[in-house]
Design a protein that fits this description.
It is a single chain. The chain is an alpha+beta fold. 16% of the residues lie in helices and 37% in strands. The protein has helices at residues 2-23, 141-146, 155-158, and strands at residues 30-38, 48-53, 59-63, 69-75, 78-85, 91-99, 104-111, 119-122, 128-129, 164-169, 172-177, 188-189, 192-193. The strands form 4 sheets. It has a 5-stranded mixed β-sheet, with no helix packed on it. A hairpin with a 5-residue loop joins strand 5 (78-85) and strand 6 (91-99). The longest helix is centred in the first third of the chain and has 22 residues, at 2-23. It is elongated. The two termini are 42 Å apart. The relative contact order is 0.12.
Length: 200
């Protein structure tokens, strides 16, 4: 009986640690998805879609489904080019797609009927974020690397985003969001609570 009780305790602890580790997992990638339609709005299935990272030359390909949809998961952040080809249609290229960490970009793609040797290049790609309803700001690597930070405190970077301020509270600096006092906000850093510097 004691062995069974020990086994149950070990399993319970393992489950708790596993959940805690999963909760602290950081998101480091993004998603590019969309639907390929023809000029009349009909879905274009069996089209070859390639996404290419312009900085690392990482390239992934897939074929659209019958509904014309494609999804590239777990892409590292960076600048991408999307190329769509299908026989009977002009090749469509969407350039300067800027993917940020944790972002899910939904790109509407329209293909024109024509020879495959004809290429239609879209440089101003409309980027629609459909997975988030909240207001958010992402600071890119260039901003973080070139901004002087006194004491290497990440809180100083937060003040570069609209609506965020650092004020002196009763127990040290507080991070306020749109006027909401810091003690009423939940801030996490690398998966751990970071509500107040004083308490760590």
């Amino acid at each position: 009986m004691k062995n069974v009780l020990r086994m149950v305790c070990v399993l319970a602890l393992s489950l708790c640690f596993g959940i805690a580790a999963e909760a602290q997992t950081q998101i480091t990638t993004g998603t590019i998805q969309g639907t390929v339609n023809d000029e009349k709005g009909g879905s274009v299935g069996e089209a070859a879609v390639e996404v290419k990272n312009l900085d690392t030359n990482l390239s992934k390909t897939q074929t659209t489904g019958a509904d014309g949809r494609f999804t590239f998961l777990s892409l590292p952040p960076g600048r991408y080019t999307l190329t769509i080809k299908k026989e009977g249609f002009s090749t469509t290229v969407q350039q300067d797609i800027n993917l940020l960490v944790g972002q899910a970009l939904t790109l509407p793609v329209s293909m024109k009927v024509g020879a495959i040797t004809t290429t239609v290049t879209v440089t101003a790609t409309p980027q629609i974020e459909v997975t988030k309803t909240e207001s958010s700001t992402t600071l890119n690597q260039l901003t973080v690397g070139n901004t002087p930070i006194l004491g290497r405190k990440f809180e100083d970077l937060l003040t570069l985003t609209p609506g965020v301020s650092i004020v002196q509270g009763p127990d040290g600096d507080e991070i306020n969001f749109n006027g909401q006092r810091g003690v009423y906000n939940n801030v996490s850093l690398d998966g751990g609570d970071y509500i107040n510097r004083f308490f760590g």
